[in-house]
Amino acid sequence: MLRRLVPSPSMFVALVALFVALGGSAYAAIVITGKNIRNSTVVGADIKNGALASRDLKKDSVGGVAILESRLKTVPSASQADGLTRFAVVTNAGALARGRNVTSAVRTGLGRYQVTFDRDVRGCAYLATIGDTSAAGPPQGSEITTSSLASNANAVSIRTENDAGAPVDRPFHLVVPC
């Protein structure tokens, strides 16, 4: 005679509890919406990392005090760093030895040079010094002057002279912070 398998009362209660627990989270995922959650009750610890994307957030809504993205300006240190990225190291023949954000360097005459950058530098400062392009020391007895170039808003005019004021070709370093 075969004995019919009937679960004991404790096994029956355990199985019912298991099915309710498994079905409860699925039920919650279907039934619980944003309307069911009271404001300010969900905190960062309740949200899984990577679960939110920028499209899930309203503009200007993140932060202890909402950051109004539309009112943000350029960060001052970023604009200063951008200004310091323009420099040129030029040989006495007017060739560009190295530089950043510089488009050209040329010798236009004895002791006269023109360095052109990738943007308008008329409102910037021009800092130049006589200096060799390699590890050798700079030539002694030299002077250097800078000015904006009227014919090109992106260019700086440089003049190198000896101590007597006579034009002479000299290598130089130029930095243009804006």
Write the layout of secondary structure elements.
Blueprint: H1 9-31, H2 76-83, E1 87-90, E2 96-100, E3 102-109, E4 112-117, E5 127-130, E6 142-149, E7 152-162, E8 172-175
Antiparallel strand pairs: 1-2, 1-8, 3-4, 4-7, 5-8, 6-7
Instruction: Give the percentage of residues in beta strands.
Output: 25-35%
Task: List unreliable stretches of 5+ residues.
Answer: none
The number of helices is: 2
Mean pLDDT: 80
What does this structure look like?
The chain has helices at 9-31, 76-83; strands at residues 87-90, 96-100, 102-109, 112-117, 127-130, 142-149, 152-162, 172-175. Strands 2-1-8-5 form a four-stranded antiparallel sheet, with no helix packed on it. Strands 3-4-7-6 form a four-stranded antiparallel sheet, with no helix packed on it. It has a domain at 77-175. It contains two helices and eight strands, in the order H-H-E-E-E-E-E-E-E-E. It starts with 8 loop residues before the first helix and ends with a strand. It is an alpha+beta fold and 178 residues long. The model has no long low-confidence stretch (mean pLDDT 80). The radius of gyration is 36 Å and the shape is rod-shaped. A hairpin with a 2-residue loop joins strand 6 (142-149) and strand 7 (152-162).
